[in-house]
Specification:
This protein has 141 residues and is of the alpha+beta class. The chain is built from three helices and six strands. Strands 1-2-3 form a three-stranded antiparallel beta sheet, with no helix packed on it. It is globular. 17% of the residues are buried. It holds the Pfam family OsmC. It comes from Tenacibaculum gallaicum. This is Putative redox protein.
């Protein structure tokens, strides 16, 4: 069974540094109004980035294998937090934006669907606690 371990070390104030299996550290912090220095990523927002990154890492190689050419690709993830503590994302919208001159809608939809339904483990984790909706947007140049 595969496992991942990260070590997170308090640096100062509300700032932490966390490593990951690739060895690249990240800084976690909060806003000045919450006692931080605004010098790092926020933990909950980082979860949304993880969701986008996981799905994107699935989609790009699938499109390459399908010989789909794109000029650009971005994923916009919006999470809505609950009002009560502990606040967590109960609604999440993942919008996939593809840019190019001759986008193959059928293949792009297939790659996104495979990521959403089969390969992206972070997406599956989010489904355990949030209502996740997705959208695919093709921007032909």
């Amino acid at each position: 069974m595969a496992t991942n371990t990260v070590t997170t070390v308090w640096k100062e104030n509300m700032q932490f540094e966390s490593d990951n299996p690739s060895g690249h550290p990240i800084v976690i912090d909060t806003s000045e109004e919450h006692g931080g220095n605004n010098t790092g990523l926020r933990p909950k927002a980082m979860m949304l980035s993880s969701l986008a990154g996981c799905s994107g890492l699935d989609i790009v190689p699938m499109l390459e294998k399908m010989r789909v050419e794109i000029d650009d690709f971005k994923i916009v993830v919006t999470g809505e937090l609950t009002e009560e503590h502990p606040k967590y994302y109960h609604k999440v919208l993942v919008d996939y934006h593809f840019y190019g001159s001759d986008l193959d809608e059928k293949k792009i939809n297939k790659a996104v669907d495979l990521s959403i339904e089969k390969y992206c483990g972070v997406m599956e984790m989010f489904r355990k606690f949030a209502d996740v909706a997705t959208g695919i947007h093709l921007h032909n140049n």
